[in-house]
């Protein structure tokens, strides 16, 4: 009886068609790599993911995927934004979350910090500013000055998460809120079967992110930085419909040997590798390797 999982079969297929050591052994997570990855894929995200410029996964609570599902994460953040609040977005990408929230909260001020920030247009809300900076260093933002910090599918790029979380804890006011939506492993990477480790390494390296870490490691980094848990929720099942859409698009290429070979030989590295993320991501998630966590933390008031 064949007990191979779909993920295992897919990893074997990739290994038979492509030299995956070239992807896995490559240093792919420097600031330069991250910038290049997002520059190359700017248009692809708009074409294949969201024409509104959102670069995160849809969270589908009902039976059918809907256009509103892309707003799940910013709507959660919106519920923590009070009148006149100062809000910092880590890794805003094309700026869509900050723009959406800035329109909903016209009396709040929004600051986005990204390695590749978007250029502001005349029609963009006036209460948004972007800084081109690595958010591991937020020294241009005063300590104890921010009400809400959030990061959607961006901290996964950092190999030193404690450094980022310490900066977040520094700039937050007491009782300020920090929300993160991101992927994490259920267990440490080294405890998985070899094909599962290969799949997770491919997914991380192909998207220029750091090697994906366990949820337990993430929560220990948050606590080390002095942040206190309010609530942690796993939403991986709710991201499956969106992951399935990407898997379906990738499958069109991955099912034909010649198509795979030509596509990977002819198109730019940072673009084609997305096909592997799309092809593996759905099954890795469905087979229970990862969480899509919503971490809500606070900077608790110091006891006197
Ligand atoms: C997948 S996109 C997510 C964009 C946005 N959060 C969204 O939900 O649409 C990740 C973004 O994080 C940014 N990023 C990654 N590491 C960063 C760092 N160390 N400092 C600043 N920005 C970073 C990337 O440039 C990219 O724009």
Give me the secondary-structure topology.
Elements: H1 6-17, H2 21-24, H3 31-40, H4 42-48, H5 72-78, E1 86-90, H6 96-104, E2 109-114, E3 128-132, E4 146-152, H7 161-171, E5 172-185, H8 194-206, H9 215-224, E6 228-234, H10 236-254, H11 257-266, H12 269-286, E7 290-298
Parallel strand pairs: 1-2, 1-4, 2-3, 4-5
Antiparallel strand pairs: 5-7, 6-7
Helix pairs in contact: 1-8, 1-12, 5-6, 7-9, 8-12, 10-12
The structure holds S-adenosylmethionine.
* Highest CATH level, the class: Alpha Beta
Q: Count the helices. How many?
A: 12
Please estimate the helix content. Answer: 40-55%
Q: What structural class do the secondary elements suggest?
A: alpha/beta
Order of strands across the widest beta sheet?
A: 3-2-1-4-5-7-6
Overall shape: it is: globular
Order of helices and strands: HHHHHEHEEEHEHHEHHHE
Radius of gyration, whole Å: 19 Å
Ends: how far apart?
A: 65 Å
Named once each, the bound ligands are: S-adenosylmethionine
The strand count comes to: 7
User: Can you name the CATH architecture?
Assistant: 3-Layer(aba) Sandwich
What's the CATH superfamily, by name?
A: Vaccinia Virus protein VP39
Compact description:
The chain has 304 residues and is α/β, with parallel strands linked by helices. 43% of the residues lie in helices and 17% in strands. Helix 1 (6-17) crosses helix 8, helix 5 (72-78) packs across helix 6 and helix 10 (236-254) crosses helix 12.
Give a description of the structure:
The longest helix has 19 residues. The protein starts with 5 loop residues before the first helix and ends in a 6-residue tail after the last strand. A seven-stranded mixed β-sheet has the order 3-2-1-4-5-7-6, sandwiched between helices. Helix 1 crosses helix 8. It is globular and about 60 Å long. Helix 6 links the parallel strand 1 and strand 2. It has one domain: 3-Layer(aba) Sandwich (Rossmann fold). It is built from twelve helices and seven strands. It has 304 residues and is an alpha/beta fold. It binds S-adenosylmethionine.
